[in-house]
Amino acid sequence: MMKAWFLPAFLTLIFWGIWGFIPKLTTRYIDPMSAVVFEVAGAMLFGLFMLFFLKFHPATHPIGIGLALSTGILGMVGALFYLIAVSRGKVSVIVTVTALYPIVSIGLAHFILQEPITFKESIGII
After folding, report:
1. Angle at 121 between CA 95 and CA 82, to 5 degrees
2. From the CB of residue 98, how many other CB atoms can be counted at a distance below 10 Å?
3. Mapping DSSP to helix (H, G, I), strand (E, B) and coil, where does residue 63 land?
4. What is this structure's pTM?
5. Rounded to an integer, what distance in angstroms lies between the CA atom of residue 18 and that of residue 40?
6. Of 111, 106, 99, 100, the residue nearest 122 (C-alpha)
7. Which of 2, 30, 100, 124 can bridge 34 by disulfide, Cβ–Cβ 3.0-4.6 Å?
8. How many alpha carbons fall within 13 Å on the CB side of residue 45?
9. Three-state secondary structure string covering 10-45
10. Cα separation of 23 and 82, whole Å?
11. What is the per-residue pLDDT across 6-60, written as a single tens digit (0 to 9) for each?
C-alpha cells in the first residue's frame, strides 16, 4: 500500500520540476523583477482559488499567519534570485545547485525541531 505522503510528494516533484524550467523561458522575454510581479499575480490567483475552496474562512492564528507570510516572502525572494540566476546561466546547472536547498531545511529541522534522522533516512537523504 502506498504511503499517504507519497502522491502529494510526487506531485510536488512534478510541479516544482516544471516550476524550475519555466523561468528560463520567462526571462527570455521579461526581466527577473518583472517576472516576480507576474509570479506573485499567479500565486494570488491560486490563493483566491484556495479562499473559495475554504469558503472564505481560512484558519487563523497570529503565529501561523506570521509564519505563512514569512514563508511567502522568503519564497518570493528566493524566486527572484532564481530568476536572476537562470537569466544569466544554464538552467540545468542552476536548478541542480538550488535543488540542494533541502540540506538547509534538514539542518533546521534537526537542530531547531530536534527531529532525529535515522540511519535509513540518512541513506535516503544522501
Report:
1. 15
2. 14
3. helix
4. 0.83
5. 17
6. 106
7. 30
8. 6
9. HHHHHHHHHHHHHHHHHCCCCCHHHHHHHHHHHHHH
10. 8
11. 999 999 999 999 999 999 999 999 999 999 999 999 999 999 999 999 999 999 9
